[in-house]
Design brief:
The protein has 104 residues and is mostly helical. It is built from 5 helices and 2 strands, in the order H-E-H-H-E-H-H. The longest helix is centred in the middle third of the chain and has 20 residues.
Length: 104
């Protein structure tokens, strides 16, 4: 994941070559408010769009620092759709891609 949420094309190409998934933590959205939340959604959607265009796997994960920011499976799907994912990709990301990251 890129903490500043800016697109780093060179790093993303290396990730693609090495078969490393990009993690988009939804806690960045749930922990922010107002204009900061809008900015976070915008940057994450651009990052997701670029990753998808180069066929880089994207993982949507909560990565919450406390219980208040945890998300259910359905909430993660909706947040992924908010960032530009379709329902099928969101479910695949949360199920298959996240599961493959845990098994490594």
């Amino acid at each position: 994941m890129f903490k500043d949420l800016h697109i780093n094309k060179k790093a993303m190409e290396k990730m693609k070559e090495s078969d490393i998934a990009l993690c988009l933590p939804t806690s960045f959205i749930t922990c922010s408010y107002g204009l900061q939340r809008s900015r976070t959604i915008y940057l994450m959607s651009k990052l997701f769009s670029h990753a998808k265009s180069i066929r880089l796997d994207v993982s949507f994960a909560t990565l919450a620092m406390n219980n208040m920011h945890l998300c259910s499976y359905l909430q993660l799907i909706e947040l992924a759709k908010l960032l530009g994912s379709d329902d099928e990709y969101a479910r695949r990301s949360i199920g298959e891609i996240n599961n493959s990251l845990v098994q490594r």
